[in-house]
């Protein structure tokens, strides 16, 4: 709620009913992702958890249609950059190394087991369920695993199509010094756009074209073939780690049906991922601070505990 309160206005309109604030509704949407449920499900969770409602400051349980309309309003493209900027406010404004990649999600509730069984049972039938699917392109800080830019799109398709759009989602106060990406982004136009217009050093393996013994003709792709920065490129796997964290912790299935709602849910996954990392870091610092307070008393009480234990053991014998 702190991130949303710094970014979003308290109410959407001056004549709104003012039953719930926009930060409260955003917190409910994040809980929907964490609990891996839908709008009706999170309403039931809030109705059964009075302590959670007290923490959020809710006097009543929001209706599931209220949450649905809030997601359409709050997760617009105009709000995404500001919300994402609020989750990465602790980062340095100049990011030394970032990684770019994209991944797809399932748009339905059919289990992977059912997919495999159906493929074995009906090999001669054509099943076009995978023609189009939700997809997200993200730029990740390789040190903290925080998502610094995201762009929802549709698959399948070449990754080069959404390169400029993804970089455009980067908050204006942040800059990237070095960007690494896989061969799906191998393009001379991408190198030229990032290096000449944005001043970003790019490291992308020049392997998208058919294999040839000759070096690439274009200058930036030739530079990649001759002086490839392997040390920096090894950090590209950090973006794969982020995809694994999202799909293991928050799920790999998008519940929404329409494309606009699917894009909003994908963006909410990225925001929730950042918030979980922030809460995890705060929890570590809290535990470390508590340990520093307890440690001196622990050093005093430990010898006393050992002495009493030895005395008792000798008394028993």
SSE succession: HHHHHHEHEEHEHEHHHH
Structure class: alpha/beta
Morphology: globular
Terminal-residue CA separation = 60 Å
Individual helix count: 13
Classified by CATH, the class of the largest domain is Alpha Beta
Rg, alpha carbons: 25 Å
Low-confidence stretches: 297-317
Number of beta-strand segments: 5
Whole-number count of domains: 2
- Mean of pLDDT: 84
Describe the largest sheet. 5 strands, mixed
The CATH fourth-level homologous superfamily of the largest domain: Ribonuclease H-like superfamily/Ribonuclease H
* Corresponding CATH architecture of the largest domain: 2-Layer Sandwich
* Proportion of residues in extended strands: 5-15%
**Percent helix:** 40-55%
Q: Write out the strand line-up for the largest beta sheet, numbering strands in chain order.
A: 3-2-1-4-5
Oligomeric organization of the protein chains = single chain
CATH domain topology of the largest domain:
Nucleotidyltransferase, domain 5
Secondary structure layout:
Layout: H1 2-7, H2 22-34, H3 39-48, H4 50-56, H5 64-74, H6 77-87, E1 94-104, H7 112-121, E2 133-141, E3 147-155, H8 163-168, E4 175-181, H9 188-197, E5 201-203, H10 219-226, H11 230-233, H12 237-249, H13 259-316
């Amino acid at each position: 709620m702190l991130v949303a309160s710094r970014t979003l206005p308290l109410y959407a309109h001056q004549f709104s009913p003012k039953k719930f604030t926009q930060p409260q509704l955003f917190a409910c949407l994040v809980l929907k992702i964490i609990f891996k449920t839908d709008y009706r499900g999170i309403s039931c969770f809030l109705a059964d958890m009075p302590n959670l409602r007290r923490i959020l400051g809710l006097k009543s349980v929001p209706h599931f249609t209220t949450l649905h309309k809030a997601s359409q309003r709050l997760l617009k493209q105009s709000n995404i950059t500001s919300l994402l900027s609020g989750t990465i406010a602790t980062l340095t404004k100049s990011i030394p190394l970032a990684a770019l990649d994209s991944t797809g999600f399932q748009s339905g509730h059919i289990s992977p087991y059912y997919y495999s069984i159906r493929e074995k049972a009906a090999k001669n039938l054509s099943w076009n369920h995978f023609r189009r699917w939700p997809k997200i392109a993200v730029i990740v800080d390789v040190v903290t695993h925080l998502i610094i830019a995201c762009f929802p799109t549709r698959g399948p398709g070449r990754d080069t199509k959404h390169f400029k759009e993804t970089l455009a989602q980067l908050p204006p106060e942040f800059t990237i010094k070095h960007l690494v990406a896989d061969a799906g982004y191998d393009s001379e136009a991408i190198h030229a756009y990032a290096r000449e217009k944005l001043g970003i050093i790019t490291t992308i393996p020049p392997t998208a074209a058919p294999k040839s013994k000759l070096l690439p003709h274009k200058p930036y792709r030739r530079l990649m073939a001759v002086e490839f920065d392997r040390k920096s490129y090894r950090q590209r796997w950090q973006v794969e780690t982020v995809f694994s964290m999202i799909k293991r912790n928050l799920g790999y299935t998008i519940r929404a049906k329409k494309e606009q709602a699917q894009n909003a849910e994908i963006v909410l996954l990225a925001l929730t991922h950042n918030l979980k990392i922030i809460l995890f870091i705060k929890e570590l610092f809290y535990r470390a601070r508590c340990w520093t307070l307890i440690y001196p008393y622990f050093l005093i009480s430990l010898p006393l505990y050992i002495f009493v234990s030895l005395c008792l053991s000798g008394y028993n014998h």
